[in-house]
Q: What sequence folds into this?
C-alpha cells in the first residue's frame, strides 16, 4: 500500500511553501513457500517541506528539510529454520534527516553575497542472522560563502567553504572518522 501527497501554498508575490509526504506499507511474502521472506515486511515514509522566498530587490531564500525512515524485517518466516537448524533474521532500520538552505543578497553597484548550507545524517541498524546488531551513522555537511563582483564584461567570484564527512560504526570503529575540509576559491569570467 502506497500513499503520497504534495501540498503547496503561496504567501504573497514571491513566497511559497510546499510539503511532500509519502509512505509505503508492505507485508512479508513467501512466494515459493520455502519459509524465507522473498519480500520483506516493510514500512517506509518520508516528509519534505520547502520554503522559497524572493523579494522585489532580488534577495532570495530557499530552505528545505527532510526526514525519512525505512523499517524492513525479513529472513525466515513462521517458524521456518535455516539449514543450520536456527531461525535467521534479516532486518534493517534506516533513518535519514537533512536540511539545506541557500540565500542570495544582491549588493548595490554590482555583484552579490551568497550563502549555502547543507547537512545530512543517516543511521542504520542491521540484523543479519544470529550475530550482533550492526549500527552505523554517516553525516555530511557543507557551508559556503561567496561574493561575486560584476562589472562590464567581467564576473569574478571569491569564496570559501567548509565540508564535513563523519562516520561511526558501533561494532567496528576502525573506520570511524570526522574530517573537516576547508577550501578557498576564485574564478573570473569574461563575456
A:
Amino acid at each position: 500500500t502506497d500513499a503520497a501527497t504534495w501540498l503547496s501554498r503561496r504567501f504573497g508575490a514571491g513566497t511559497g511553501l510546499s510539503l511532500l509526504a509519502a509512505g509505503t506499507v508492505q507485508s512479508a511474502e513467501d512466494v515459493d513457500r520455502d519459509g524465507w521472506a522473498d519480500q520483506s515486511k516493510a514500512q517506509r515514509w518520508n516528509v519534505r517541506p520547502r520554503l522559497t522566498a524572493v523579494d522585489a530587490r532580488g534577495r532570495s531564500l530557499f530552505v528545505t528539510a527532510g526526514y525519512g525512515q525505512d523499517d524492513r524485517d525479513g529472513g525466515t518466516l513462521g517458524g521456518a529454520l535455516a539449514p543450520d537448524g536456527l531461525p535467521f533474521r534479516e532486518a534493517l532500520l534506516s533513518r535519514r534527516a537533512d536540511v539545506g538552505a541557500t540565500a542570495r543578497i544582491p549588493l548595490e553597484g554590482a555583484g552579490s553575497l551568497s550563502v549555502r548550507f547543507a547537512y545530512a545524517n543517516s543511521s542504520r541498524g542491521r540484523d543479519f542472522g544470529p550475530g550482533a546488531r550492526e549500527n552505523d551513522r554517516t553525516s555530511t555537511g557543507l557551508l559556503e560563502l561567496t561574493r561575486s563582483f560584476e562589472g562590464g564584461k567581467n564576473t569574478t567570484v571569491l569564496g570559501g567553504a567548509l565540508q564535513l564527512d563523519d562516520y561511526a560504526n558501533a561494532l567496528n570503529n576502525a573506520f570511524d572518522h570526522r574530517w573537516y575540509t576547508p577550501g578557498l576559491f576564485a574564478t573570473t569570467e569574461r563575456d
In short: The beta strands are 2-10, 15-26, 41-54, 60-75, 89-106, 112-128, 134-151, 154-169, 177-190. The chain has a mean pLDDT of 94. The radius of gyration is 24 Å. The chain has no helices and nine strands.
